[in-house]
Specification:
The complex is a heterodimer of chains A (276) and B (490). By secondary structure, chain A is α/β, with parallel strands linked by helices. Chain A has one domain: P-loop containing nucleotide triphosphate hydrolases (Rossmann fold), CATH 3.40.50.300. Chain A is built from eleven helices and ten strands. In chain A, the strands form two sheets. Chain A has a six-stranded mixed beta sheet with strand order 6-7-8-3-9-10, with helices on both faces. In chain A, strands 2-1-4-5 form a four-stranded antiparallel beta sheet, covered by helices on one side. The longest helix of chain A is centred in the middle third of the chain and has 14 residues. Chain A is globular, with a radius of gyration of 19 Å. Chain A starts with a helix and ends in a 5-residue tail after the last helix. Chain B is mainly α. Chain B folds into two domains: 186 residues, no CATH class; 248 residues, MetI-like fold (Orthogonal Bundle), CATH 1.10.3720.10. Chain B has a two-stranded antiparallel ribbon. Classes of the chains: A alpha/beta (276), B mainly alpha (490). Chains A and B meet through helix 3, helix 4 and helix 7 of A and helix 13 and helix 14 of B. The structure holds adenosine-5'-triphosphate and magnesium ion (MG). The site of magnesium ion has 4 residues of chain A, from helix 2.
Amino acid sequence: MDANFAKENEPMYDAPLGKNDVDAKDTKIAAKDVQVYYGDTHAIKDVSVDLLDKTVTAFIGPSGCGKSTFLRCLNRMNDTIDICRVEGLIELDGEDIYDKRVDPVQLRAKVGMVFQKPNPFPKSIYDNVAYGPKIHGLAKNKAELDEIVEKALRRGAIWDEVKDRLDAPGTGLSGGQQQRLCIARAVATEPEVLLMDEPCSALDPIATAQVEELIDELRASYSVVIVTHSMQQAARVSQKTAFFHLGNLVEYGETSQIFTNPVDPRTESYITGRIG
Amino acid sequence: MPLLWLFLIVLAIAAVGFVLGRARALASAGGDVRNLHSLPSYYGNNVAIKTVVPAILVMLIWLIVQPMIVNSTISGMIPESSVAENSSLGLVMSEVRRTAEGLDNAVANGDMTEEFARDARADFTDVTQRLKDAGQIVTSDVTQPILRAAQSYRIMNATGNLIMSGIVLALALSGLFWGLRDSHAAFRARNTVEAAVRALLIGAASIAILTTIGIILSLVFNTVEFFRLYPATDFFFGTSWAPSFSGRGGSSDLGVLPLLWGTFYISIVALVVAVPIGLFAAVYLSEYATPRVRAVAKPMLEVLAGIPTIVYGLFALLTVGPLLLGIFGDDGLGWMQAGTAVMTAGLVMGIMLIPFVSSLSDDIINAVPQAMRDGSYGLGATQSETIKQVILPAALPGIVGAILLAASRAIGETMIVVLGAGAAAKLSLNPFEAMTTVTAKIVSQLTGDADFSSPEALVAFALGMTLFVLTLGLNVLALYIVRKYREQYE
Ligand SMILES: Nc1ncnc2c1ncn2[C@@H]1O[C@H](COP(=O)(O)OP(=O)(O)OP(=O)(O)O)[C@@H](O)[C@H]1O
Ligand SMILES: [Mg+2]
C-alpha cells in the first residue's frame, strides 16, 4: 500500500528527490521531552527532535497543532508571553538554552526568526534591515552597513523593488514585500539558525521561488527551520520533515521518506489531504 | 396643566403610537416580517418620533418665548409713578411675580376662590391681608398697580399655558396620525429612524460647537472693549504689570509680558519635571513591570490625578516652599528670599502632571502591537533597545500629544500658582524668585472691588483671550506634528 501511495503521489512534487538527500551532519538543536503550556492548555506534548546543522527542516501539520509554538521555543520567544511555560531540555550546540546563564538576547541573535505575520518596524526600509547589524555591531562604518543592507535585501528577493526608495517607510510596502523585508531583516544579522514561520504565505509564486532559492542557499552555512502549509514547498526545500498533530510530534524523518513512505497513518492522511 | 403632565401625556401618546404603528405595519404585511421593508419596531419608532419631536420642540420654544412676551406686556402696564425712588422696574417686576405666585398658592390652598383672585375690582388691602393670612410672603403692602399687574400676569400665563397645552397635544396627535398613515409595508421606516438619529447627533454636536463659539465671542467682545480703553501695543509689549485700582486713581500699567513669562517659566519647570518622570514611569509600567506590580502601581499613580489642585497648592505653600527655602534660602545658598517662587510652583505642578503624562503614554505604548516587540526581540535586541528604537518611535505621535496636553494643563493651572509662586509680576531669569502667571492675575483682577467696566477688570478678558489663543496654538501644533509623523509611517 505504501508503495502504491508513493507512486501515486510522486508526480505531485516536482523537486528531484536526490536534492533532498541528507549527508551525515551534526545536530544543531536537540530537543528532549519538551512540554509547552499556555496557562492550563497543553500546547506541545513530549516533543523530542534533533535538528541538523546545514539542513532545512520543515514543520508541517494542521492549523493550531503547535508548530509556531514549538518554533518559538527554539529561540525563547515564548519568554515574552506571560502565561507560557516551557519544560524539557532544548540544546543549541550541546548547550541548554533554558539554562539560567544563557542570555536570551544573545541566543536570539544566533537563532533568527521570521514571523507568520509580516511585522516591519515603523522605520525606513534601510533602517529596518540595518536594525540588527547596528545592534550587534556587525558593521564598522556606513559603507559596510550599506553593503550588509544591500546583500540582505538581495537575499530577501526584494532589492530590485526597493533599491530606489530605501528611505521610504517599511510599513508602506505590500504584504508580500513586507514579508520579504522581514526575511531580509532576519538574514542581515547572520544567524546560525533561521526559524521561518510560514514565510511564503503572503507571497506570489515568483517571490516564493526566490525565497525558496534563498533558503536553499542558506542551507550551505546555516540550519533552517521552516513552518509551511504547502506540502509542495516542504517537499521542494526541506531535507527533513516533522509532522505535528494536536501538539504531538507524530513523525520525523527524511523528507523523501515522509512524503513517499510515511510510517504513521496520520501523516499519510495529512499529506494526502484527508485530515487538516 | 402642569408641564410634567403634558410631557407625560405626549410620551404616553407616543407609546401608544409605537404599539399601533408596529401592529399596523405588521398587519399590512400580512403578519410576515419578511414582507416589511424594515423590522416592525422601526415602524413603531417612526410613529413615536413623529409624535414626540414636533410636540416637544414647540413646547420648548413656547416655554422660552412666553415669559418674554408676558414680561414685556406687564412691564408696559406698570405706571412710571409706582416705580419708587432707589428702585427699578426689575424690582417692581419681581414684586409682581411674587404676588402672582402668592395668588396662585392661595387659590391652591383654598384661601381664595379663583374668581376672587381674578376680580379686577377686588379691594387690594383685603387681598394683602388674605395673602398674609394664607402664610404668603408679601413684603410690603400690595399696591393697586402691582395687584392689577399681578392679576394680568396670572391670567396671561394661565391662558398661555392653556393654548400651549392645546397646541402641543394637537401636534402630538397629528404626528401620531401622520406616522400611522405611513405604517405600511413599503414605507422605509428604517431610513426615517436613521435620519432622526442623525438629527439628534447633529443637534448634540451643534450645541457643543455653539456654546464654544458663544464663549469665544463673549471673550472677543470684551477684549475689544478693553482695547478701546487701553492701547493694544501697551498690553502686548508692555514689560510692566502694575494695575491701579479705581479708588486710588492714577493710571495702570497692564503689560502682559511679565505674566506670559511667568506662565512659560513655571510651565517649563513643570514639564521638565513631569515629562521624563512620567514617560519613564510609563515605560516601566508597560514594558518591565509584572502584571501584579502594574495592577497596584498604575492606579496609585492615577490617584495623583484625582487630588484637587488646591491641595497641591497647600503642599507647595506649606511643604515644598519651606523645604526649598531651607536649601536655597539665606541659611543655605542664599538664592531664595521667600518660599513662594517659580521653582516651588513648577515642582509641584510637575508632580501634578506626572500622572497625565504617564497614564496617556502608558496607553499609547500599550497600543504598539506586540508584533513590533517580537520582531525586535527576534533579532536579538534587548528590552531597552527595543523600547528606544522601536516602541518609542512608533508611539511618538501619541506621546507628543500627551506632552502638549500636559503643557496646556500647566498653562491653565491657577491654584498652585496662586499659593506657590507668589503674586509679583516680574521679568526675571532667577527661578527662585516669586513670579505670577496669566491665570493667577485673571483671578486677582476680577476678585477685587474694581468696576467691571474699567480697564483693570476688562483686562481679564484680554488675558483670557491670550491664554485661549496660546493653548489653541499648542493644540494645532500637536495635531500638525502627529499628522506629519503619521504620513511618514503609515
Ligand atoms: N499566546 C497564546 N496564548 C494562549 N494560547 C495560545 C497562544 N498561542 C498559541 N496558543 C494555542 O496553542 C496552540 C498551538 O498554537 P500554534 O500557534 O503553535 O499553532 P500553529 O501550529 O502554528 O497553527 P497555524 O498553522 O494556524 O499557525 C493552539 O491551540 C493555540 O490556541
Ligand atoms: Mg502558526
